[in-house]
Amino acid sequence: MKAPAIELKRLTRYFGSRPVVRDLDFCVPEGKVTALLGLNGAGKTTTIRILMGLLSPTRGAAMTLGQDATKMSTSTRARIGYLVEGHFLYPSMRVRQCESFQRVGYSQWDDSMFREIVDHFGIDPDAKVSTLSRGQRAGVSLGLVLAPDPELLVLDDPALGLDPVSRRALNETLIEFAGGGRRTVLLSTHLLDDVERIADRVAVMVGGRLKVDASLESFRDRVTFFTVPAGATSDASDAKPFAAVPGLIEARRLGGAWQLAVADADQETMASLSRVAGDAVTRNDTTFSDAVLAYLTRERGDGSFLVSGRQASGSVSTS
Amino acid sequence: MNALIKKEFGDVLRWTPLGMIGAFVAAWLIWPTQNSHSYAMEESLISQLGLAAGVIAVALGLLQSLFDTRNDSRGYLLHRPWRHSQIFWAKVIAGFMAYVLTLTPAVIATAMYLGWKGIDWLPVGAGQVIPFCCYAPFVFVLHPMVIWIANRNASWTGTRLLPAVGVVGAVLLVWAGIESLDAGQMLVGTGVLVVAIGLAVPLTLWASRHAFTSESYLPPASSAQNFCRSNVVLLAISGVVLYTTVAAFVIESLPKEARVYNQYMVALGEQDEWVQVRTTHAASNWNSMTTATRPIDGKAEFESTKQLPLSKSGTYLGTALGQDRGQWLNRFSNLGSFESDSTAGGTLTLTRDGDRILAYNYNGLQGVITPDGFSPIASKSTGGFSGKVTVLTLSRTARKNFSPNDNPVLMDDAGLYQWDASGKSVKRLLAGDFQAAGLSLGATSDASFFWTISGTTLTRYDLELRPSSEETLPFVSEIVEMTYSYQLPLISLHAAETFEVAPVRQNETVRIVRADDGRYGLVRSDNGRDSQYRMLSGDGSQSLASVDLPIPAVPISEARLGGAIPPILGFIAGVATLLGSVQVPASHWLWILALIQGLVAAVAVWWITGTRGFSQRSRIAWVVTSTMLGIGTLIGIVAIYPKLICEACPRCDQQRRVDREACEHCSQAWDAPTDDGIEIREQEPNLAPAMAEIS
What we know:
The complex is a heterodimer.
Chain A: E1 6-15, E2 18-28, E3 33-38, H1 44-51, E4 59-64, E5 67-68, H2 74-78, E6 80-83, H3 95-103, H4 111-120, H5 134-146, E7 152-156, H6 164-178, E8 184-188, H7 192-198, E9 201-206, E10 209-215, H8 216-222, E11 223-229, E12 248-254, E13 257-263, H9 267-277, E14 282-284, H10 288-300, E15 315-316
Parallel strand pairs in A: 3-8, 3-9, 6-7, 7-8
Antiparallel strand pairs in A: 1-2, 1-4, 4-5, 9-10, 11-13, 11-14, 12-13, 12-15
Chain B: H1 2-13, H2 16-28, H3 41-65, H4 71-78, H5 84-121, H6 130-139, H7 142-150, H8 162-182, H9 186-213, H10 229-253, E1 261-268, E2 274-281, E3 289-295, E4 303-305, H11 310-313, E5 315-316, E6 318-319, E7 332-339, E8 347-353, E9 356-361, E10 364-370, E11 373-375, E12 390-391, E13 396-397, E14 403-404, E15 409-412, E16 415-420, E17 425-431, E18 436-440, E19 449-454, E20 457-465, H12 478-483, E21 485-486, E22 491-500, E23 509-514, E24 520-525, E25 530-535, E26 545-548, H13 556-559, H14 567-579, H15 588-611, H16 616-629, H17 632-640, E27 646-648, E28 655-657, E29 680-681
Parallel strand pairs in B: 14-21
Antiparallel strand pairs in B: 1-2, 2-3, 3-4, 5-13, 5-23, 6-18, 7-8, 8-9, 9-10, 10-11, 12-15, 15-16, 16-17, 18-19, 19-20, 20-22, 23-24, 24-25, 25-26, 27-28
Helix pairs in contact in B: 1-5, 2-3, 2-5, 3-5, 3-6, 3-7, 5-9, 7-8, 7-9, 8-9, 8-10, 9-10, 10-17, 14-15, 15-16, 15-17
């Protein structure tokens, strides 16, 4: 039995009277890449700030590498690489100065790794941070975070604003770093393709709560999509009849049909669908992105920008 | 830590030229170009360049804090294997280095300018920057104050800025303490400085460090991370200072009833008997005065009378103890301007510079005055006065102050001298250590006498004109009455008679009155209310009689301040009044209002502490504190203790705190969130969570 690298227990955080994260129970296993997904405002960054010891929980607890995050020691911090949202670096520093500033306090620092990453992103070590592109800043940030060879890597939206080439470079670096199961990565992102490429596990936060915490394969297997022709229901424009379907994540109108996403579909699901639409129900292939989007769309409760205003009742989800 | 200091210093370094320019302009504005502007350079530097220093400290604090309150910048800075307190101290040290660097050019330029001008042109010197250099490090306390404010767990529209009230108040208090010391109030000044510097600096640093290392994580209301002793003390004080200032401002802005102002004294009456005199200044015009007297025993009402003659109300003797001889802050001190027929412009301004006097006209330094004489070239002057020399205040009568416009009498620890303004010479009039001296002007020239007190001997001197004098002996003429000044001739003093008296005490006033029959009386007073008096006789056998004069009534409008000041001060004022140990007694309304304020504060604090989940012991402690410190304590409590966030408990339906695991009313734990039926959770095999289930 192995202890998790990160463990959250009933973690709750309020800002004012608004709960941003509520009763979060979540473990990040050691040696895996776990993707933390959710819409903006779902509580991902707040959760990461708490487990990095930068924000106190309102109640509940967060353990990072076996230590209470609110009392994180300097030695524990040294074992964690944390890439903050937006690839923050001091604009007045040069890349070389960033390195010499960052390395202070770390017992180990891999110069060659830092140089390799910087080279990989095509960055001049004497360049000023303020002159770097967003992708280059991401490269420097990644180099600074990886050079101390951390056990745990926490990345808060590392691909934010990156061009495709930089994104690929970032993903390659992460795959190389996390390969072999020696290191743990918690990755918060909106880029589902990247997640599918590099993550072992996926966690989806909806409205401050954790709805999904599973391996990528398991998640994909347990979400099922069905198509129901609009004419098969009593009211073609009303999604309400589907609300009774057990495990319904989302029902959305797509052209002349309803597309339903269902979690853990079973006999009861099928029976319920038959009651609403008879034999017109067909099962579709599930992609990872569609499955995630079903959860995320559920939170926002909207569809196409073109039809969202006209079809207020065109989407439904159970709650 | 050096790397972080270097980084923090590098961050603010590029802004320092802006600060340097600001500091230089602030200093340049007070560089003296005229004699009259140059005396209080030390004070001017402390106040005006000190203000610029404060702005620079605040600006540096903002530069080093505001960016790091952003989540990305803060996360990047704090997530490294350093203790967060190390990061805080690195910021403070780097800020101090930048602060010193920013102020240095302005200070050096000022010192160079003052040194370059030197005393030949104006009474200035490079050393005048030293008091500012001692004061400026304390002003830097505003830098950690800004870090404290930036990292506080409070709203900008709420109490976030409250620490500024206490810390800026402490900076002003230090300035007041320096002024008090300079004015010779050693006990008050030292006490103020010890409290302001000894408490404000460490408390601000610790509160700031606590805010940076704990409060900035926005801990919940129940967390001990919200509190440290330093921030509790400083925020409570800040709340009290804020309330007192605002309430006093409002109260002082309210319309007031016009106040009749009465002064009481002991003097000789028409029949040369001792009487109590009341001088009433009319409410509508304080220049309109009426005089009333009553017997010295106070057993009759005051009756209006005509104004007493100058001689019967008497002349105060200037006491060395009360002179400006105790001042130390400013190197140069203006002793006044005196006519001089032999000087271009006709006037010489005397400036004390340590043990010598510098004489200036509009052309610059004309010479140096010492007991050895007058030297036109400063470097060739010899000798020096004993201790600090001052121009003696002569002829300060109970009704009017007259002053000589030429030939002033100088006083030092070794004697009395007269400066011959036209002949430019100094003559020692008397040798000895005198504690008090004065000139009582009579209605005629032969009724003017000089008085001194040395130890237990009061001596009356006859005045005699020196041969070189072109003036007549002074007396109160119509011109003197009108201009308040007289021509003091060059005089010699001859002891006429002596009297045995008690030594002069600190802050004591001594007055000589003269009866119609030529006898003299002595009136002494410590606080203006109690007066001791006797007619003077040669053997000193007659002891002083004593009388308590009436207490001037304080109108209720002034007692309203009892609603503003901390009740404990009102209580102290009340007790001091009852014991009769204050010069201006407090109206009983002052402490009644203070008491009411204390009670209102206690009730309000009892209520508010109940809504914020205080323990019973804590509530009682705060109620006691608020009874003493007043309504301002409420502001402090609101600032110290975050507002509770509550939700309805599903079991008992009462509002429960969201930051506690169990309901404080029914001990119910939080219910697990209800699943929507869409949850997909699959724990990794072989995973052993370390934490037990939270209940």
